[in-house]
Design brief:
single chain, alpha+beta, Beta-Lactamase, 5 domains, 6-stranded antiparallel β-sheet, 39% helix, 27% strand, elongated
Length: 616
């Protein structure tokens, strides 16, 4: 009786121990029904002993492979314990991985009465293994599909690993590299010494990357440019190798060489073009100049210009006086460079005069803004075309025209006077035919006199010697006066529309000359029409005058040059129209000198409208 009591106490003691073991301990009968469920099983699966005793293991594994389970059961009954990994399901539906050992349970007589399974939760380990597996797959995918290649060598430079991606680059299979020394028989002869120096640096400086571009042989016999980076990790546990990363940079090298050649060619062109070229940055600091602009400003080379303390010589105003083409001082804010910094291309004919030597240079200065990604002006490119020689020739020509015109005025005045006297005498003697001839002669003398006066005006304008009066001008009254003077001499009907209620400040005689030029042209170039319209309108601070005809019109290709000196928009339709192309030039210059603007709107065959606007 004492032995039975002691045996019972021993069983209770063992049950207490099993209850608090952290591993899962599950006992079933031979039919698979659970007869014992410890605290470890509660923790792992989330079910209490009350919920599970009397149930089968199917609850813990709905996806149980029945055939495999039967096979395992028969093996255990045959005396072979089962050990393996098993995937179950917790009460909350989540998966749990278990390391399971199952053995047969026998009674005191050795008869099999059930099974006992001890399980350890290995979910965390399985998830870590899965992550590691995925990482290995990702690493393998990256290595095998990378654009470049990866290699490992030992301390002697013997290749121990080459990534499969290498084949796409150089044509050789990875196994053709294994066991060979790095760079062996693959390097272009001229680059061999550079690769040896790279190997020495990598070996001597562990943990520090070293790079080199060299030419390596392709399996087809050609050579590629390879960029290789070596990193000595011989002392790094788990790696203990020298790591080489390399990629094909042949295309980049070729592009770089092409860009370098293009840059050399462009530099040669820029250095040898006749035009001077400078580039200034957003701070108006000179960052490029060619030799032509350096010579233009008295320096031997562009390098001297950039290196000198006067590097901004083209923008410094203490060494050069700067004038516009009419001889007026050109303020810094109105110069092409300043306008380009405000975002608009600009050009101007500029006169530079050295304050040291008094030497004069004429240049057509064109400035173009270069914008950054934000739309801000990052650079301004200025092109200086030397027009000094041409301007000197023009000045000599203008001087000759001025002298000739001045000398012609006196005999023309005398001829006009004598012609008028003779005409009056013939009229008095009732010699009407002779008087008519003299009248026509006087008309031609008047035209010639007007032409001479125009030529003198051009000469004065070019020399900057024409003066403009400053007086109050009633433009409406002036327009009516000009129209009334012209109306008797033409078959066109001259109309005035609109009104200008305020006066402007300017030269009344010169503004009348502008009106006369525009009306003369409107009449001359609309022979099939019978009307010319003068319109006036006030817009803000500007007074605009428009002269519209209904004649032959002007082609688009000519409109941009109409106000140039001696330019004529000749076509098949207007070859018979006389003129030298100076009237519009004079009109345009007069309006500009009044701080105004002149422009044209026209369609060929539909007439033209010339506008000018003046500050009111």
């Amino acid at each position: 009786m004492a032995d039975g009591k002691q045996a019972g106490e021993q069983l209770q003691f063992q049950a207490a121990i099993l209850r608090y073991v952290t591993d899962s301990v599950i006992v079933t009968d031979l039919h698979g029904t659970i007869t014992y469920w410890n605290e470890g099983a509660c923790v792992i699966f989330g079910y209490s002993a009350l919920e599970m005793i009397g149930k089968t293991l199917v609850v813990l594994s709905p996806d149980l492979n029945v055939a495999q389970h039967v096979d395992n059961f028969e093996r255990i009954l045959a005396g072979h314990d089962y050990a393996g990994e098993w995937q179950g399901r917790r009460k909350d539906g989540t998966t749990v991985w278990l390391d399971v050992k199952t053995t047969i349970l026998r009674d005191t007589e050795g008869t099999a009465i059930g099974l006992i399974g001890i399980s350890k939760d290995i979910t965390a380990r399985k998830e870590a293994e899965e992550r590691l597996c995925q990482s290995e797959k990702l690493f393998r995918a990256l290595i095998e599909n990378m654009d470049g290649g990866l290699g490992l060598t030992d301390v002697n430079g013997i290749i121990t690993y080459i990534s499969p991606s290498t084949t796409r680059m150089v044509g050789f299979l990875p196994e053709e590299f294994i066991g060979r020394r790095v760079f062996e028989r693959m390097v272009y002869p001229a680059d061999q010494e550079a690769t040896e120096r790279l190997w020495a640096r990598v070996l001597e400086e562990p943990g520090k990357s070293h790079a080199l571009e060299y030419r390596s042989k392709h399996k087809d016999g050609s050579f590629l440019w390879i960029e290789v980076v070596g990193l000595n990790l011989l002392r790094e546990p788990g790696i203990e190798a020298i790591v080489w990363n390399y990629r094909n940079v042949t295309e980049r090298k070729q592009l770089t060489e092409e860009v370098a050649r293009a840059k050399e060619q462009l530099e040669a062109i820029l250095r040898n073009v006749a035009d001077g070229i400078v580039v200034v940055d957003g701070s108006d600091r000179l960052i490029y100049a060619n030799d032509a602009v350096a010579h233009h400003f008295g320096l031997p080379t562009s390098e001297a210009m950039l290196a000198s303390s006067q590097a901004n010589i083209t923008h410094k105003h203490d060494m050069y006086a700067v004038w516009d083409e009419w001889g007026r001082p050109l303020p810094a804010c109105e110069r092409p460079t300043a306008q380009a910094f405000r975002g608009k291309p600009a050009q101007a004919l500029v006169k530079f005069q050295s304050k040291i030597t008094d030497h004069v240079y004429w240049s057509l200065v064109r400035a173009h803004p270069i914008f950054d990604e934000q739309g801000q002006v990052q650079y301004v490119v200025c092109v200086y075309t030397d027009l000094t020689e041409r301007k000197e020739v023009e000045q000599r020509k203008d001087h000759f025209i001025s002298m000739a015109s001045h000398e012609l005025r006196t005999p023309l005045t005398v001829l006009s006077a004598y012609t008028q006297l003779l005409r009056e005498r013939f009229v008095a003697e009732d010699r009407q035919e002779a008087a008519q001839y003299l009248s026509k002669m006087n008309d031609q003398i008047t035209k010639l006199t007007r032409l001479v006066v125009d030529m003198l005006d051009i000469s004065k304008m070019q020399a900057g010697q024409i003066d403009m009066a400053r007086e109050a001008v009633d433009m409406e009254a002036l327009a009516r006066e000009v129209v009334e003077s012209l109306q008797p001499t033409t078959g066109h009907h001259l109309l005035i529309e609109g009104e200008a209620r305020e006066t402007i400040t300017g030269d009344r005689e010169r503004l009348g000359q502008v009106m006369m030029i525009l009306l003369d042209n409107a009449i001359k170039y609309s022979p099939q029409a019978d009307t010319v319209v003068v319109r006036m309108a006030r817009a803000g601070d500007m007074l605009t005058v428009a002269v519209q005809d209904f004649g032959i019109g002007i082609g688009n290709e000519h409109q941009g040059r109409l106000f140039e000196r001696f330019y004529r928009a000749l076509s098949k339709k207007d070859k018979t129209y006389p003129g030298l192309g100076i009237g519009l030039y004079i009109a345009h210059e007069i309006i500009q000198r009044h701080a105004g603007k002149m422009w044209v709107e026209s369609n060929e065959g539909s007439g033209s409208t010339f506008f000018f606007s003046l500050p009111a």
